[in-house]
Write a structure and sequence with these properties.
Chain A: Keywords: Membrane, Transmembrane, Transmembrane helix. Chain A: One of its GO terms (molecular function) is metallopeptidase activity. Chain B: Keywords: Membrane, Transmembrane, Transmembrane helix. The complex is a heterodimer of chains A (404) and B (196). Chain A has 404 residues and is an alpha+beta fold. Among the domains of chain A are: 61 residues, no CATH class; 165 residues, Collagenase (Catalytic Domain) (3-Layer(aba) Sandwich); 56 residues, no CATH class. Chain A contains seven helices and 20 strands. In chain A, the strands form six sheets. Chain A has a seven-stranded mixed beta sheet with strand order 2-11-13-12-16-18-17, sandwiched between helices. A four-stranded antiparallel beta sheet of chain A has the order 3-8-7-6, with no helix packed on it. The longest helix of chain A is centred in the first third of the chain and has 31 residues. Chain B has three helices and ten strands. Chain B has a domain of 102 residues: Immunoglobulin-like (Sandwich), CATH 2.60.40. Chain B is α+β, with helices and mostly antiparallel strands and 196 residues long. In chain B, 22% of the residues lie in helices and 35% in strands. Classes of the chains: A alpha+beta (404), B alpha+beta (196). At the A-B interface, helix 1, strand 15, helix 5, strand 17 and helix 6 of A face helix 1, strand 1, strand 5, strand 6 and strand 8 of B.
């Protein structure tokens, strides 16, 4: 038995020598490449920055952002110094037994700051969403302002009744999967004061898109991002001169497209104004590549209508009040030529879209539209959310054909 | 019993040997196959700003490499556009896309029931004064070629001399993406195998 055991032990030893050498070689190699180390290294966490549950978002830097201590702007002297706790001796009646006092954990003044009536701990603070600035407690009642506290591609979030600093992705995915194979539409905020208000309105835009007949196949090719940056202004002015005329309002297209591209990888953008630059009943204005919308108009088909211009290149079907000037192009969803009757497709659609008609007035009074009403027609009473067939196929399908 | 134990040990030895060979093979290939392609560096953009005259003449305003995301340039622009191509020294195509050259102004969309005659408006097309490009940064790119709708060359920008600063490459290690020039050994945390 012993011999057997010795034999076994011997065999085991022989195996250990070879196996151990082999295992040592493998693990030395793996350790040299750090492959095994992370498995045993406890994850490090930053005490001051906590993260929301993962929300869909585009992160420029995928690693955990480290708070940038570089931009210490001012030490705010406005906070009142913490009152030194005065201990008022209370008379203890001798007859009653003295209750045993369980020691409560005390936080030293060096580790706290006073914010109004609240005492907050070192590392906690307040987030100003408008400027993406965190005012963080550094102890000893010192509150220090730090811009871009959460790092590039991230923003701080303010929380009612909570002084823990939370960070989130600046680009919030509101529609789509975030896959790179899709067209990226970025909604930019103008004159909003909180992310929640801005995002609530972006949700309205998404709802309006879903109300159209674009369908899952077309919408499935689009990512819609809401950029959480409340500190930007794009509006330039009213009655802006352009070649051969003027527009009721204009914005900085270069700034908007640059912001959309560089921050969220955008291909196109939509600026959402908090009705601060509203011009009468104008709900939105578009150029190809981007549009500018007013918040009040989100209860109407304004957003998908403007996207019809800025993304799909569709033209208006409501009346411009003038006949087409020479050289004017009818565009995708209008026809220069009439058919023999309103219910017969205009010649340009006769073979491909036999179910459409040819109704006079399509932007210009002498052009023809494929259906009586569509989303590219006027807003107000009778406004509809559906694009007509030429708009869907020759407009949206064509513009999105390289996306998946 | 002993024989069984010996057989078991032999099998274990063979098994460990196979595992060892497998691990070494995978690591070897991962080292040599990692980022030897001509892909772009994630999170870095080749930022180009072009001036455009009313006669559609282009000139370079600025060129830079920035830490930023980029557009795909895959929208099929329905109005006036330029074709963009990023090419290597051997004329290999790294990226092809389109960018608008015109600012197409559409009339405003009004909410309400306006009388048609109140809206004397028009679609106005004018050349963009400036064209801003945020292109993916390909370390192997030699040039960006811009052609018009007919394929006639309008502008060419040499990019071969644009290099990322070394500290940028160091910063890229840790972005969660195994970038160009990174490998298992140079940047383990980005290029290691993910067990998830």
């Amino acid at each position: 038995m012993l011999a057997k055991k010795n034999y076994l032990r011997h065999k085991s030893f022989v195996l250990d020598e070879v196996g151990a050498t082999l295992i040592t070689t493998i693990f030395t190699f793996l350790a040299a490449t750090n492959l095994v180390i992370p498995l045993f290294t406890p994850p490090t966490t930053d005490q001051t920055v906590s993260y929301e549950s993962i929300t869909p978002g585009r992160y420029l830097i995928c690693s955990m952002p480290t708070p940038t201590p570089t931009l210490i702007v001012t030490i705010i002297p406005t906070f009142t110094p913490t009152p030194t706790p005065t201990l008022l001796p209370t008379e203890i009646p001798s007859s009653t037994p003295i209750p045993s006092i369980t020691p409560t954990p005390t936080v030293s003044l060096a580790e706290t700051c006073q914010v109004g009536a609240n005492t907050i701990k070192k590392g906690e603070g307040l987030c100003d969403e408008k400027s993406n600035t965190v005012t963080v407690c550094e102890g000893n009642n010192q509150m220090v302002q730090k811009q871009n506290f959460c790092g590039q591609g991230q923003v701080c979030l303010s929380q009612a009744g909570n002084f823990q600093i939370k960070c989130n992705a600046a680009c919030q995915l509101k529609l789509g999967t975030g896959a790179r194979t899709k067209a990226d539409l970025v909604v930019l905020a103008e004159d909003f004061n909180s992310y929640s208000d801005f995002l609530r309105n972006v949700d309205k835009e998404v709802a309006a898109l879903n109300q159209t007949n674009l369908g899952a196949a077309r919408l499935g090719k689009i990512n819609l991002w809401a950029l959480l940056d409340l500190n930007q202004t794009y509006f330039l002015g009213y009655n802006c001169p352009i070649t051969g005329g003027s527009v009721v309002a204009c914005w900085d297209h270069i700034k908007a497209i640059t912001t959309a591209m560089s921050s969220c990888g955008g291909d196109t953008y939509s600026i959402l104004n908090n009705d601060t630059h509203r011009v009468g009943s104008v709900g939105g204005i578009a150029i190809w590549g981007g549009n500018y919308l007013f918040k009040f108009a989100l209860d109407f088909p304004t957003f998908p209508h403007e996207l019809g211009h800025s993304m799909a290149g569709l033209v208006d079907e409501y009346s411009f009040g003038i006949a087409a000037p020479s050289g004017a192009i009818a565009g995708i969803n209008c026809s220069e030529k009439a058919s023999q009757s309103e219910t017969t497709p205009c010649p340009k659609w006769a073979t491909r879209f036999p179910s459409v008609g040819c109704y006079k007035r399509c932007g210009y009074t002498n052009f023809y539209r494929p259906t009586i009403r569509s989303i590219m027609d006027r807003g107000g009473t009778g406004a509809v959310y559906d694009f007509n067939e030429p708009s869907l196929v020759d407009g949206w399908d064509d513009i999105l054909k390289y996306f998946q | 019993m002993i024989v069984k134990a010996i057989n078991f040990m032999s099998k274990l030895k063979i098994f460990l040997l196979i595992i060892g060979v497998f691990v070494i093979t995978v690591l070897f290939f991962s080292y040599f196959l990692t980022k030897k392609d001509e892909g772009p560096i994630e999170g870095m953009a080749l930022s180009i700003v072009l001036r455009q005259s009313p006669e559609y003449k282009l000139s370079l305003k600025s060129i830079d490499i920035k830490q930023a995301l980029t557009s795909d340039y895959q929208l099929n622009v329905p109005f006036g556009y330029y074709n963009l191509k990023i090419l290597t020294e051997k004329e290999k195509l790294l990226l092809a896309g389109k960018v608008a050259k015109d600012k197409v102004n559409f009339p405003p969309y009004t909410i309400g029931d306006l009388v048609e005659e109140e809206l004397p408006v028009n679609i106005i097309v004018e050349p963009l004064n400036e064209i801003v490009l945020y292109l993916p940064f390909f370390p192997k790119a030699k040039k960006v070629v811009i052609t018009d709708e007919n394929g006639i060359k309008k502008f060419e920008i040499e990019t071969a001399r644009l290099q990322l600063a070394k500290n940028v490459l160091i910063k890229l290690c840790g972005n969660g993406i195994c970038d160009f020039n990174e490998n298992l050994f140079a940047c383990f945390k980005d290029c290691r195998f993910k067990f998830k």
